[in-house]
Amino acid sequence: METTDPQYWNNRYLTGDTGWDMGRVSPPLQAYIDQLENKDLDILIPGAGNSYEAAYLLEKGFRRVTVLDIAPVLTARLREAFAGTALQIVEDDFFRHQGLYDLVLEQTFFCALEPSLRRAYVTHMHTLVKPGGHLAGVLFNRSFSHDGPPFGGAANEYRELFAPLFELKTMELCYNSHPARQGTELFINFLPK
Fold it and tell me: pLDDT above 70 covers what percent of the chain?
């Protein structure tokens, strides 16, 4: 399996094999978004999926939101669903994407990548988050019995991966996860060094 192959993700969306989709904005991300005051933040959501978080950001008045996904069928659906809005929809490989963002929201993207790509994710993420910006969202705090995706992980692994390039401001068990994910998610808020 190659989780950076657009056709792999196209097939998942075409067949409806999207078990990660909660059908709504992630509760921890919703709570985080609710406390953001600056509506002019440049925000990126990589591995955008059905973009519930992006829709929520637009609803809350954020004007500079970009979603990034590698699956052509998904980005076409998003362009149709968000036509006439300020949402920027980019079809690209995360590892090739260039830009600078005040905030990157992490929701199921990191866990969709094969673990061998995690160090490259951290390195590239560091180039995308502006100095003084944030990488915030949720990471799994569990293992899975299948080969993935999703791929699991744990706090000690994340500390080792992220600490060289990010200040780990927050990494704690989510108190407000979706019922299906209760006790299995860590909320993160990391700042680039």
Answer: 88
For residues 38-42, give the mean pLDDT: 97
SS3 string of the chain?
A: CCCCCHHHHHHHHHCCCCCCCCCCCCHHHHHHHHCCCCCCCCEEEECCCCCHHHHHHHHCCCCCEEEEECCHHHHHHHHHHCCCCCCEEEECCHHHCCCCEEEEEEECCHHHCCHHHHHHHHHHHHHHEEEEEEEEEEEECECCCCCCCCCCECHHHHHHHHCCCEEEEEEEECCCCCHHHCCCEEEEEEEEC
Structure tokens at 135: 């990488």
Tell me phi and psi for residue 95, to 5 degrees.
-70, -10
pLDDT at residue 169 in the model: 97
Residue 1 pLDDT: 47
Q: What is the pLDDT of residue 36?
A: 97
- Predicted structure pTM score: 0.89
Peptide bond into 115 cis (omega under 30): no
